[in-house]
């Protein structure tokens, strides 16, 4: 039965992890996978998370099934975090939210719901977008098309071209937008640009699908959710996927939220019933631990305060690294990296060729994907000078 299956090409990111693990250079740096690293190169467990885990260990008295929706209070608290407490869509009870295994689970469950709504569903994604968007949405049977987004030459958003294409999109199609910290480019829409995009979506009756995997990693929890909040205020319907992997550092616990903004409160129960049925047909119910941690953090003032400080620390380290990278490169005679300090979140394209990417790995044990996307959160005051000198060498 399985004899005719041929091995698939290795995932480029997994290849990087393997080569990095084997490399014996003590100065090696892995800038492939999107995880935050502290100054010692570790991806720490936040102490707010540790404290919530200690509480769980002490107080949790059952591991009985919770059901397909997972932890309902968690989903409510996450909706408040995403939209802000008194957002009109929440007040009007137009938000259907459900716990999922990570942001990936949210994207996939949403895709399965969308294909139930009509015969052919098309989603327009940014060019480029996070590589996983395509299989996560496409394998549910959604057709994927692209709108122009990042201008590699000018290191900026091709905003006019993006708007021009959005204006041509047929009514009822969806547009996937990154709420903040665009992966892979780090180039985010300004608030004024979000307003213009929403004008077009409204006029053309296009449904936005907002992927928010990095709330709190860009400007602040509120600023990073600006686009999502605007969409939910101005448009009748929207889809969203939220991840707790990065901002709570809960990567492997697999926790996120899928959400649908409905035209009216009466549509929430039917939507939830479909989401729950979809979940039953894929993984039955989500893992609990990560969501229980987030619920405790968001519902206890002291823990929440501590988490907010830890989140701020991660955000500031990333921003500081971006600024230092620009100034060190400039001191080495390379003034072209100013855009790195303007971009947000974990990722930016360095703008070097695949050959130069390979030289970085071979000559300096610095690993990144061929597109030259770097995980800025993998750099810090300790390894940044070595990184910049190595880049200067291959330029
Ligand atoms: C743009 C984007 N969306 C969603 C996710 C989902 O992540 P996870 O499933 O680990 O929560 C990621 C993770 O890298 C991402 O970059």
Tell me what the structure shows.
The structure is a single chain. Helix content is 46%, strand content 14%. The protein has helices spanning 12-22, 47-59, 72-83, 88-91, 102-117, 133-138, 159-166, 191-204, 221-224, 226-234, 268-282, 289-299, 301-331, 338-342, 354-364, 384-394; strands spanning 29-30, 95-100, 122-127, 143-148, 150-151, 156-157, 174-178, 207-212, 238-243, 256-261, 347-349, 366-367, 373-375. The chain is α/β, with parallel strands linked by helices and 395 residues long. The radius of gyration is 21 Å and the shape is globular. 45% of the residues are buried. The N and C termini lie far apart (50 Å). The model has no long low-confidence stretch (mean pLDDT 97). The structure holds pyridoxal-5'-phosphate.
Architecture (CATH level 2) name of the largest domain: 3-Layer(aba) Sandwich
Bound molecule types: pyridoxal-5'-phosphate
Write the CATH fold name of the largest domain.
Answer: Aspartate Aminotransferase, domain 2
Taken as a percent bin, the fraction of beta residues is 5-15%
Please state the average pLDDT score. 97
Approximately how much helix is present in the residues?
40-55%
Q: Can you say what the CATH homologous superfamily of the largest domain is?
A: Type I PLP-dependent aspartate aminotransferase-like (Major domain)
| CATH class category name of the largest domain | Alpha Beta
Q: Overall 3D geometry?
A: globular
Number of helices: 16
